[in-house]
Amino acid sequence: MRETIAHIESRTSQRPRLAVVLGSGLTGFLSSVENPQEIPYSEIPGWPESTVPGHAGKLVFGTLGATPVAILAGRSHLYEGHDAKRVTLGVRVLAALGVKTLILTNAAGAIREDFTPGELVALSDHVNLQGTSPLIGPNDDSLGPRFPDMTDVYSVRLRTLARDAAAQLGFALREGVYAAMLGPSYETPAEIRFLRAIGCDLVGMSTVPEAIAGRHAGLEILAISCVTNWAAGVKPGAIHHAEVLERGRAAAGRLGDLLKLVVGSLAGPEPIHG
Ligand code: HPA
After folding, report:
1. Phi, psi of 256 (to 5 degrees)
2. pLDDT tops 50 at residue 77
3. Ligand 1 pocket: which of 24, 243, 244 to mutate (most atoms <8 Å of CB)?
4. What structural domains does the chain harbor?
């Protein structure tokens, strides 16, 4: 990790305290970033390359309004064959560079019938069904504690800011529990019935490793899902990746507006946490 950090430090003098991870089809948000300074993942030593269509694969430093931000445009996933430590390298590197607040975004399937494709939903909690964690193995006490608390993974303060920002933009930001699955196959209808029965509202294949690594590092986290489809069996019809990407793209503008307001309110009277 030291080499990765040193490389990034040599490429930019920017040291943002806030980072955003962009999920499938959501990279349109990058157009909201001013004075972008881009570092392709392929140029960063030790960085796992994203292999999924729709993930641009670069680290972008810039400003959102007046706030310096780092954007991970494209993430790697467990289903690509990376282990959970590699999947979360970016979050840990950014934490080491001084990031205190982490905004995670993803595309998700709606388990709840009353969520609608195109809708943005804030995560209130998650269930990790990926069978792994970035924290397995000996604990690096310099990164965080052996047994981090997970009571408030998704900051109530940030969720409130996000809800207020959405109201300003004229839409309701509802909340849901996210089920993290390994993928890459979409779920079966029976799996979705199981996820509903255990209290999950949304389903996806990302975010949770980063949220665990982020909490371990003491970051304050907000996660927003863009509902791209109803989960398997919720409505008739199959799930197609192309449609998932298209829905994500269609929602990227609204997500960008929301994140700009949230980031603006963080930079306002109340200082960024930590
Ligand atoms: N399942 C899992 N991951 C997803 C889905 C889904 O239905 N939609 C977008 N990402």
Report:
1. -60, -45
2. yes
3. 244
4. 2-266 (3.40.50.1580)
Say what the pLDDT of residue 55 is: 56
> Which distant-in-sequence residues (6+ apart) come within 8 Å of 113 by Cβ?
230, 234, 235
Catalytically annotated residue among 19, 70, 73, 107: 107
- Looking from the CA of residue 205, the nearest atom of ligand 1 is 3
The gap from C-alpha 188 to its chain's centroid, in whole angstroms, comes to: 24
Averaged confidence pLDDT in the chain: 91
SS3 label, residue 132: coil
Identify the H or E element spanning 265: helix 241-267
Location of structure tokens 């608390």: 149
* 3-class DSSP state of 25: coil
What's the pTM?
Answer: 0.94
17 contacts 100 by C-beta, under 8 angstroms = yes
CA distances from 266 to 95, 132, 181 (A): 18, 32, 31
| Model pLDDT, residue 24 | 67
- Going by pLDDT thresholds of 50, 70 and 90, the confidence category of residue 50 is low
pLDDT tier, 32 (very low <50, low <70, confident <90, very high otherwise): confident
Residue 79 DSSP code: G
Joined tokens for residue 265 = 């309110």
